[in-house]
């Protein structure tokens, strides 16, 4: 790891600890050349496999962007979106697989989004599950009601 200050090609780890509830390792490093300190974060790469077969790294930002679209005009702030994305990442990582289909990311979004905002949930679900009729909405809404009473 190059020193970000002087570009010295080597650095020494002075401390490492778990971060993000064990999903990352944070290392404190020291440069033997300029003695400055910096931090690196190491996480396992989680790849999302798209329907086309193309893989891309999992991104919380992408989850936030997708859900934000469904939340337009709804009383949902960025902090709530960030927490949701964190929940989604925890859920897909909990599967223990290094590669997950993008479909599963969508599935992992539905649960927490339902708790966050029902209208946003219905919007997201209608796209994700390709609702084709008002009947599909009715079915989903009756399931929501059931979820609330249960
Ligand atoms: Zn340095």
UniProtKB/TrEMBL annotation:
The UniProt record lists the keyword Transcription: yes
Cofactor(s) in the UniProt record: Zn(2+)
Origin: domain of life: Bacteria
ZnF (unnamed) ranges: 3-34
InterPro entries: ATP-cone_dom, NrdR-like_N, RNR_NrdR-like
Location of the ATP-cone domain: 46-136
Keyword Repressor among UniProt keywords: yes
Pfam families, per the entry: ATP-cone, Zn_ribbon_NrdR
Keywords per UniProt: ATP-binding, DNA-binding, Metal-binding, Nucleotide-binding, Repressor, Transcription, Transcription regulation, Zinc, Zinc-finger
Binding note for cofactor: Binds 1 zinc ion.
Function comment: Negatively regulates transcription of bacterial ribonucleotide reductase nrd genes and operons by binding to NrdR-boxes.
Family label: Belongs to the NrdR family.
UniProt protein name: Transcriptional repressor NrdR
Lineage, opening ranks: Bacteria, Bacillati, Actinomycetota, Actinomycetes, Mycobacteriales
